[in-house]
Amino acid sequence: MSTTKNAAAQALAGDADIPAAQRLALYRMQYVIRVCEKRAHDLFLQNLVKGTTHLAHGQEAVAAGFAAAMNPDDYSFCTYRGHHHTLARGVGMLPVLGELMGRQCGLMKGKGGSMHLTSVEHGVMGSYAIVGAHLAIAAGAAWSAQYRGTQQVAAAFFGDGATNIGAFHESLNLAAVWKLPVVFVCENNRYMEYTPIREVTAVEHPAADRAAGYGLPRIVIDGNDADVVYRTAREVFAKARAGGGPSLVECLTYRHGGHSRADPAKYRPKEEVEAWMKRDPIVLYRARLLAAGVAEAQLAAIEAETMRTLDEATEQAKGSPPPALESALTDVWADGGASWRN
Amino acid sequence: MAQLSYRDAVAAGIAQEMRRDQRVVLFGEDIAAAEGVFKTTVGLLEEFGPRRVRDTPISELAILGAAMGAAMTGLKPVAEIMFSDFLACCWDYVANQIAKTRYMSDGQVSIPLVIRTANGAGVRFGAQHSQSVENWAMAVPGLKVVAPSNAADAKGLLAAAIRDPDPVLFFEHKGLLAGKAEVPDGEHVEPLGQAKVLRRGNDVTLIALAAMVPCALKAADALVREGIAATVVDVRCLVPLDARTLLAEAARTGRVFTVEENPRLCGWGAEIASIIHEECFSALKQPVVRITTPHVPLPAADRLEDSVLPSPERVASEVRRALGK
Ligand SMILES: Cc1ncc(C[n+]2csc(CCOP(=O)(O)OP(=O)(O)O)c2C)c(N)n1
Ligand SMILES: [Mg+2]
Fold it and tell me: Please, which residues bridge with residue B205 across strands?
């Protein structure tokens, strides 16, 4: 190790717990999410993505940090703003973009769309578009893991807005009472659709300040620092695996874009946006890696390779046919069909 | 064969399935230690223990959400919603989540669960504890809908519902719980999606569900004394619907009456009437007549409740009127 590297390592005291390879993986995943979300936005503006998208650029560190702490058979339950968590569990950019574009190559062949990304083989047990609903579903998956005696943990990712809906409170209570191996992760990006969360919430920290009501510790972390997220995730997952029950983690973060579609997010004060842009999780993480002695060329190579994969995925998705029309009438039932009568 | 009450048959059906399949778990409000507010889960905590038979908080969202999450990850949950009226509290899970997730996931996710709930009137509980809401469920693609009319079916259809790979909404009728019937000993499973012809007569066809089945049978008894022979068909499952049997029995008499406890608009009989009109119109001697609860919330007082629910007298008089007698 060179002296500069040693000095940098000194400056990052306490970082020895995250191996270099893990750091690079965290960087790569954040970068993948960033460029894939931006591409989704471009494709939306080109009318190649129809309907809606809810992008998570700016919130990459939460997804990358949590996914890095999960075992392959752990469960993720996401919201409509769920592309980042889906990619972070290892789903490719092609099936994600293909699903957004309603193509045969899509993750669910166009039957779910942007808000419902699901890949059971990657542990992505679905993305749910009714605010808060999936917290209870994650609790149920955790109960099943507990019942079956596996070491699996379920994680539910949700927004600040979800903390004011009944399902949040019912799920936390049930998970606490049954000591379920579930981790509830609030991505507090300060806004619901267009209204600031603080204007409609009785406490400052919409998730963490409610933890005491369920006998849980209050955890608020910097959701724009992938290392902090990863460390926290490791702890809460270890606790859940050891039978210590659920955790509620509030990650402070920020959307770089609007709520959905082409929302310009004019409702956010300029100074606030600027301040958060300075805390761009990817810019910060890149600088940290460089300071720790990672070569610029190594990061540039990750970036170039990611862009190549993204461009290929985009072209492939554009070339993919729309789904066969017959597929609209399949998979209502376990027998594969849609018949409700004889 | 043993004489069992409908409520004991429910417990027997659950127990039968819990014995053969470790994945079956039962939970809901007051169902374990208290053995159910309707005593439909008596003996289950004792036999299967607190790991498999669990009391929950009063959290309808968490109950159905947890049932779904457990079902999609390898269990076969049987969740109880105490009164079917309370399904309105957790309708998101019924209509948006449980029913649609297989489809939206392109078949990746299976949700083999049963939601049991006490449905129906006749017990003077008023408008929020007496509704027949099977037609709500029927309107949602992705849900199977079952409503037994007797103890044998309560056991056999519930067993089939638990074995079924799809989500099933299972309506136990409050007014039928005390009624006893012969229930086969040993393993008893009645396939879903089969209507049952309970008696045959050549003049009219009465199509009924749940508590309206004994109502229709009583009407048929009265009519036969007047020389009018009625066929009575128990629909048993609204989804999947045994349209074939209904059409055959409709065509045989040409005079069809649905007997429905649900309020008038969009009751299940409307769908069945439409199928019959579309598919065996030429065999009909008259339009299908729907006998329903009027389109009002249910009143509490006994006299009022009795006055709005279809009764054997009302069914018989509708039949006489149609026949010009
Ligand atoms: C039950 C429900 N109510 C309202 C909506 C409409 N809606 C969609 S996203 C959203 C904002 C949610 O905000 P938050 O939970 O902070 O998540 P974020 O979008 O910021 O990730 C709303 C109100 C919905 N989908 N579900
Ligand atoms: Mg938000």
Answer: B231, B256
Q: Does A75 touch chain B (CB under 8 A)?
A: yes
Annotation marks residue B129 as catalytic: yes
User: Which CATH number, 2.130.10.10, 3.40.50.970, 3.90.1150.10, 1.20.1250.20, labels domain A20-318?
Assistant: 3.40.50.970
* Architecture of the B2-183 domain: 3-Layer(aba) Sandwich (3.40)
pLDDT digits (tens, 9 = 90+) for A159-210: 999 999 999 999 999 999 999 999 999 999 999 999 999 999 999 999 999 9
Atom index in ligand 1 nearest the CA of residue A259 equals 19
B60 is catalytic: yes
Q: What residues 226-255 of chain B have any CB closer than 8 A to a CB of chain A?
A: 239-244
ipTM above 0.90, yes or no: yes
Contact assessment for residue A32 and residue A64, using Cβ atoms and an 8 Å cutoff: no
Which of A192, A194, A256 gets mutated to test ligand 1 (max ligand atoms within 8 A of its CB)? A192
Burial class (CB in 10 A: 0-12, 13-18, 19+), A119: buried
Contact between B73 and A112 using a beta-carbon 8 Å cutoff: no
Please give the torsion angle defined by the CA atoms of residues A240, A246, A252 and A258, in that order, rounded to the nearest 10 degrees. Answer: 100
Whole-angstrom distance, CA of residue B242 vs CA of residue B189: 17
DSSP string computed for A134-182: HHHHHHHHHHHHHHHT----EEEEEEGGGGGSHHHHHHHHHHHHTT-SE
Query: How far from A6 is each of A2, A10, A27, B246, CA to CA, in Å?
Result: 6, 6, 21, 82
Where does chain B hold its CATH 3.40.50.970 domain(s)?
Answer: 2-183
Fold of B196-323: Rossmann fold (3.40.50)
Contacts of B169 in chain A (CB under 8 A): none
Task: Look up residue B306 and give its two tokens.
Answer: 């009795």
Q: Contacts of residue A116 in chain B, CB cutoff 8 Å?
A: 104-105
pLDDT value of position A14: 54
| pLDDT, tens only, B255-312 | 999 999 999 999 999 999 999 999 999 999 999 999 999 999 999 999 999 999 999 9
Supply angle C-alpha B54, B57, B63, rounded to 5.
70
Binary contact (B73, A141; C-beta < 8 A): yes
| Mean of all residue pLDDT scores within chain B | 98
Q: Is the CB of A59 under 6 A from ligand 1?
A: no
What would the pLDDT profile of A303-333 be if each residue is shown by its tens digit?
999 999 999 999 999 999 999 999 999 999 9
The Cα A147–Cα B74 span in angstroms is: 10
- Closest residue in B to A143 (Cα) is B70
pTM of the model: 0.97
Q: Which residues surround ligand 2, an ion (CB under 5 A)?
A: A 159-160, 189
Q: Closest Cα partner for B55 from B87, B80, B74, B22?
A: B80
Cα of A224 vs centre of ligand 2, distance in Å, is 14
**Quick check: CB of A118 below 6 Å from ligand 1?**
no
In chain B, ranges of CATH 3.40.50.920 domains: 196-323
Domain boundary assignment for chain A: 20-318
**Average pLDDT rounded to a whole number, residues B18-23:** 98
User: Would you state the structure tokens that stand for residue B70, as one six-digit string?
Assistant: 């457990």
